[in-house]
Amino acid sequence: MKFISFTALVLMSCMGSSSDAGNATGWRGDATGRYLSANPPLSWSKTNNVVWNTKLLHFSNATPLLLKNRLLVCEEPSTLICLDASNGQILWQKTNTYAEVLSPAEIEQAKQVYTNLSANPKTHGVTGFSSPSPVTDGQRVYAVFGNGVAVCYDLDGTRVWGRLVERSTHDWGHSASPVLVGKTMLVHVLKMTALDLATGKTLWATESPAGWGTSVAAKIGDVDVVITPKGDILRISDGVKLARSVSKLDYCAPVLEGNKVYFVENGGKAIRLPAAEIEPVKVETLWQTKMAADRYYASPVLFKDRLYAVHQKGNFSILDAVSGTILSEQKLNLGGTFYPSVTLAGHYLFVSSDTGETVVFDLDDGCKEVARNQLEPFRSSPVFEGARLYIRTLGGVYCIGR
Q1: Are 378 and 44 in contact (CB under 8 A)?
Q2: H helices within 112-238, ranges in order?
Q3: Whole-angstrom Cα distance, residue 137 to residue 104?
Q4: pLDDT by residue (tens digit) across 309-330?
Q5: Spatial strand order in the sheet of 149-153
Q6: For the chain, what is the radius of gyration of the CA atoms?
Q7: What is the pLDDT of residue 19?
Q8: How many other CB atoms sit within 10 Å of the CB of residue 204?
Q9: How big is the CA angle at 31 (ends 25 and 34), to the nearest 5 degrees?
């Protein structure tokens, strides 16, 4: 990686089923990074196949969120911006500092817990405070920032609620995106905290080691659970920890397919969830494997029993998702650090580094490289819809299309 510090990890997160972008709810669309019906151009540059480009004042590592012809993006340190997805025009933007979100009484109450509330928590310059990606239930937009503030907005930019959940104590900041399940919003800063979608009030909070990657929602039988990157399994209805440390990821996110969960980092591991909830939950280990040793900030993609992963320095691996066998490895010479998660559009795979360069592979042709494209530097993961893709660069937002 360009940055050797742990901070990089934050970005990736900066971290399902086989649905595609039409059912997107937040980070990496539906959390899989797969946009199966998309058919975007395979080649682009800062001038070629650019539908629009909107400049913004400050960077963000958050994945853009598409919702009803709106594109929601973040900006340092705590701004949520709504763009017209058709032309890039800014429709509204809202900042979310303590003074703007909390009432005077809430600020005084927070000062009893945080004596240094006048300053934001610690973070790294690469991570910043806007790495978590916004999420939606299809009607409203929800976001969490590195200052610990969670907010809910309607599509016209009116704040429905806002509150301070808790502040990160890690020197490299917070990057895990919120997760929506039913009427619950899960925020994992220090504890896993469940918020009521309608009001933002805390439903429960459970001690669980936090990582920089984003947790994934799953089911055990008909019971909703959330699986953290550190391998804890929590019941969403009440926060009860059903299992702990079934695997461990430091930087990226687990990948879910049906009742199987894949943890891909220095070592790879696949587990199977039980068919029904019996406390404590016991998972079955399907396989473990050893991959190229390094940090995996980018979360992998699963497609047709293949896992596609890349570590921070560009070692690109293909794993057999059934056996864990490493089928191939190659070095992608893009320079920089591979923060953006691996994404899939149709049958094409997109792998990027923070230099702004992206390599495209055709999975229907033996994972053959078909294009390399240079844009402005970015650390967020691209989002696809139809014949377009959207990339949040460090300097703004690009819409690439035919």
Answers
A1: no
A2: none
A3: 30
A4: 999 999 999 999 999 999 999 9
A5: 135-136, 141-144, 149-153, 159-164
A6: 20
A7: 36
A8: 17
A9: 105
Of 2.130.10.10, 3.40.50.880, 3.40.50.300, 3.30.470.20, which CATH number belongs to 8-401?
2.130.10.10
Domain boundaries, the chain: 8-401
Task: Tell me the per-residue pLDDT of 162-217, one tens digit each, with 9 for 90 and over.
Answer: 999 999 998 899 999 999 999 999 999 999 999 999 999 999 999 999 989 999 99
* Spatial distance between the Cα atoms of 229 and 211, rounded to a whole number of angstroms: 6
Distance CA 370, CA 360 (A): 6
Residue given tokens 């763009």 in the structure block: 83
Instruction: Work out the number of other CB atoms within 10 angstroms of the CB of residue 274.
Output: 15
Cβ distance 288 to 326 under 8 Å? no
Token pair for residue 283? Answer: 């998972």
Geometric angle at alpha carbon 215, from 312 and 203, rounded to 5°: 150
Query: If DSSP codes are grouped into helix, strand and coil, which group holds residue 152?
Result: strand
**H or E element that contains 100:** helix 98-101
Residue pointed to by tokens 């650390």? 379
Per-residue tokens: 194 = 């469940």
Peptide bond into 77 cis (omega under 30): yes
Are 239 and 194 spatial neighbours (Cβ–Cβ below 8 Å)?
yes
